[in-house]
Amino acid sequence: MTETSNDPRKWPAPIEKIMEWIPARLRRGTAVVPVVRLSGLIGAVTPLRPGMSLAGVARTLERAFAMKNAKAVALVINSPGGSPVQSRQIYLRIRQLAAEKQLPVLVFVEDVAASGGYMIACAGDEIFCDPSSILGSIGVVGGSFGFQELISKIGVERRLYTAGAHKAMLDPFLPENPDDVARVKALQREIHAIFIALVKGSRGARLKGADDVLFTGEYWAGESSVSLGLADAIGDLRSTLRARYGDKVLTPVVAPATGMLSGLFGRRSAGTLASLEGISGLPEELISALESRAIWAKFGF
User: Fold this and answer.
1) Worst-scoring range by mean pLDDT, 26-30, 86-90, 118-122?
2) 10, 68, 167, 208: which is the annotated catalytic residue?
3) What average pLDDT does range 106-114 have in this prediction?
């Protein structure tokens, strides 16, 4: 009894006919690199404008890593950052799936991978970017406004009742307390140290800059990012994957589930929410849009 060859060109004619009906990505020997896009601000920006979170991307990532014939998983990142917790949780889930499935992760940065966006990019075994991409911003930021003089001018009296000496810390309607500022800065330093350790653990010896250069919150364009070791090379997804896996490589995009139920539960547009909740939702939505635009504008976009 002769053994059938694994080379499709040597299969008997009936088998060749059957193979024509099988999706290309399921055929034996086909190189497949599923692509997942991770875009936008990270975390719950406002109730009306939810950002990227582990809950929102976990299922998509699992589907990508479970795809048959996958040789690697490609992540396309375009994010100016956001929640450090959600950023780290997404990073960890990617690394867990990569270890379970024993698949390399290739990250491709589009416009920006900064702050939490860069933290997620560090989940890649390799990071590629465009010459005009922005990477870095390895730091922690927080801010508020002070309205205490304004409310006194318009005749408003602030009445605030708390249990706990620091429960009203950095209240924007009270004068700034230096002790409260010191506490917030200590908290930021702690989170910053976690961020730095993650980058060093992921990039290792590839980092070429000193700590007082890489971890000041500064950010760089593509070529400088490569020279500092924040990225591995300049490259786009299509060219890089074809050079590595051949011209026949398949790159199916794994998108979040859509449909009537997802539209009804958790994926409604801001306009729908505003219409359901009335005019009172519009100011918050406007502020959310302005905040989002301000964060993107920081990086020139």
Assistant:
1) 26-30
2) 167
3) 97
With a cut of 80, say whether residue 291 has pLDDT above it. Answer: no
Asked if 167 is an active-site residue, the reply is: yes
Q: Crossing angle of helices 84-101/178-203, nearest 10°?
A: 20
Greater confidence (78 vs 155) lies with 78
Catalytic residue among 87, 115, 137, 202: 115
pTM for the complete prediction? 0.78
Known catalytic membership, residue 115: yes
Do the beta carbons of residue 91 and residue 119 sit within 8 Å? yes
Same domain, yes or no, for 162 and 240? no
- Are residue 42 and residue 78 in the same domain, yes or no? yes
CA 25 to chain CA centroid, nearest Å: 27
Q: What is the tally of structural domains in the chain?
A: 2
Residues 6+ apart with CB under 8 A from 5: 11
Q: Where are the beta strands (DSSP E) in the chain?
A: 35-39, 44-46, 49-50, 73-79, 105-114, 126-129, 134-136, 219-221, 233-234
Q: Which domain holds residue 149?
A: 140-202
Query: What is the distance, to the nearest Å, from the Cα of residue 254 to the centroid of all Cα atoms in its chain?
Result: 15
